[in-house]
């Protein structure tokens, strides 16, 4: 057999051997995780994935101490401290450090609310907002701070709180240099430089850039402390009114009808319901705003104020 024939025979044999081997298609996921069975096309991706099961976070941020399982995740996180926000919204101008954050934000402009609460049906544009809302119904606060004992409903809220104890203030104001532990606190502070004052006093109309400043101001009118709801920001002049209001954020219904045992969150809801049993209609007086079973007309003046006139009892 000539050398040329030998070469041809060898090439055919090699092709035959290759054909006998199991054929692996391009993009086939041949690297499988022993823990969960998830497969990857390259071994490096498998190794990156496996840290999910081990819990290892070897990469830490020099500025805030936060740990990450991947070097890439650390680099993305560090953009927060750098202040670089390369992704901006075309509709409102808000800028973000990550493209994924911008994509999530764009949903808020679409009006689409794909995430709804099973308890009350309220809709949300992002899943994180739904999770924050759901603790209103459960009232659970399973995450507590080891240093001060304060408890939180979300692990992320606990981590943000712990920065207060660490003393790290990674977010600084470009205009006055004041530093903050949280990005949200920094954003709230920036409003003071913008001149925008979204919080107004219902009594005198004075406006404020921060809710806390408005609540402090209210003491001038009320002569005592103002009680503010942490859930929605609504304020009250007495702690009793605040506690009564808090039922609107929970599933508790402490006010029960004696006739049908139906329960309600607020006393005025119970009174309105009881009209069904008494067959009496309650009217709100245009002068004193109290409810009565009279319509406040001249023939049926309000029992409380007399319909705005000097009211004297004939008896």
TrEMBL record:
Residue ranges, annotated region (Disordered): 1-32
SUPFAM superfamilies listed in its UniProt record: beta-beta-alpha zinc fingers (SSF57667)
UniProt feature, compositional bias: Basic and acidic residues: 1-21
UniProt subcellular location: Nucleus
Keyword annotations: DNA-binding, Metal-binding, Nucleus, Repeat, Transcription, Transcription regulation, Zinc, Zinc-finger
Chief subcellular location: nucleus
Pfam families in the record: zf-C2H2, zf-C2H2_4
GO terms for biological process, alphabetical: negative regulation of cell differentiation; regulation of transcription by RNA polymerase II
Alphabetized InterPro entries for the sequence: Krueppel_C2H2_ZnFinger, Znf_C2H2_sf, Znf_C2H2_type
Listed GO MF terms: DNA binding; zinc ion binding
One annotated Gene Ontology cellular component of this protein: nucleus
Ranges where the C2H2-type domain occurs: 31-58, 59-86, 87-114, 115-142, 143-170, 171-198, 199-226, 227-254, 255-282
Role, per record: May be involved in transcriptional regulation.
Family that this chain belongs to: Belongs to the krueppel C2H2-type zinc-finger protein family.
Entry protein name: C2H2-type domain-containing protein
């Amino acid at each position: 057999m000539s050398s040329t024939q030998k070469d041809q025979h060898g090439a055919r044999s090699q092709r035959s051997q290759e054909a006998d081997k199991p054929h692996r298609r391009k993009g086939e996921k041949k690297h499988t995780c022993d823990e969960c069975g998830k497969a990857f096309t390259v071994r490096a991706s498998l190794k990156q994935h496996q840290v999910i099961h081990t819990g290892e976070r070897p990469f830490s941020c020099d500025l805030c101490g936060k740990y990450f399982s991947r070097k890439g995740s650390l680099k993305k996180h560090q953009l927060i401290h750098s202040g670089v926000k390369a992704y901006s919204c075309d509709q409102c101008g808000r800028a973000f450090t990550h493209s994924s954050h911008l994509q999530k934000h764009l949903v808020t402009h679409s009006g689409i609310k794909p995430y709804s609460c099973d308890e009350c049906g309220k809709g949300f544009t992002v899943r994180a907002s739904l999770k924050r809302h759901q603790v209103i119904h459960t009232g659970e606060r399973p995450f507590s701070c080891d240093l001060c004992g304060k408890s939180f409903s979300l692990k992320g809220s606990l981590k943000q709180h712990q920065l207060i104890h660490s003393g790290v203030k990674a977010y600084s104001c470009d205009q006055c240099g004041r530093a903050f532990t949280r990005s949200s606190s920094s954003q709230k502070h920036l409003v003071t430089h913008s001149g925008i004052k979204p919080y107004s006093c219902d009594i005198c109309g004075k406006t404020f850039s921060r809710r806390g400043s408005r609540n402090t101001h209210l003491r001038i009118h009320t002569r005592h402390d103002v009680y503010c709801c942490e859930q929605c920001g609504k304020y009250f002049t007495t702690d009793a009114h605040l506690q009564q209001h808090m039922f609107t954020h929970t599933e508790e219904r402490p006010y029960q009808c004696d006739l049908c045992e139906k329960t309600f969150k607020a006393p005025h809801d119970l009174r309105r319901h009881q009209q069904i049993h008494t067959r009496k209609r309650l009217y709100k007086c245009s002068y004193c705003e109290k409810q009565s079973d009279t319509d406040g007309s001249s023939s049926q003046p309000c029992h409380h104020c007399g319909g705005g006139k000097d009211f004297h009892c004939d008896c």
